[in-house]
Write a structure and sequence with these properties.
Layout (H helix, E strand, L loop, with lengths): L5 H12 L3 H8 L3 H8 L7 H10 L4 H5 L7 H15 L5 H12 L3
């Protein structure tokens, strides 16, 4: 059984989101060259950058680091609901719309 690396998970999520390395780098606050190094396993980001990447890609740091499986919905559901409820007052209308859109989309 092979473990998916940070770079592989990052690439998969970028592709799924239809986002470029440059767009992600801008959202995270790093240079495009730095993001490229993360994508090619030449550099490991600091924890705060991993958290920013996770936020930008609508995932968790645990998933990016390989400590959480993708699609573990049964275990994630209560945490997701609490997270949204706790932060909804601070969310922009655009962020709320993005959540609604994600819920209504079919993969």
């Amino acid at each position: 059984m092979t473990q998916t690396t940070f770079a592989e998970r990052l690439a998969k999520l970028l592709n799924k989101q239809g986002m470029t390395q440059k767009e992600l780098a801008e959202r995270v606050g790093v240079t495009e060259a730095t993001m490229s190094r993360y994508m090619h396993s030449e550099r490991i980001p600091k924890s705060e950058i991993i958290a920013n990447i996770a936020t930008a890609l609508h995932t968790t740091s645990d998933y990016l680091l390989g400590t959480e499986k993708e699609g573990d919905f049964e275990n994630d559901y209560p945490r997701i609901v609490r997270l949204i409820a706790r932060n909804s007052a601070n969310m922009t209308q655009e962020q709320k719309n993005a959540i609604i859109k994600a819920l209504l989309e079919n993969d």
